[in-house]
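New to this. Comment on this protein:
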Amino acid sequence: MARRPYDLRHAAVSLWLNAGVHAPEVAERAGHGVDVLLKVYAKCIDGQHEAANKRILEALTT
């Protein structure tokens, strides 16, 4: 288990971002502004390149 409650909060926010929840929604739930959220958690977002490319391609072809 986590050593501090903050560790669980950090894990939850990281999970939400990696699950594809939009940054404004995550920021609201975490009690942050989007700017703070992205500054603190941007390094936690991993493996999103393929999903982003797919969304861009879908947007361009519809």
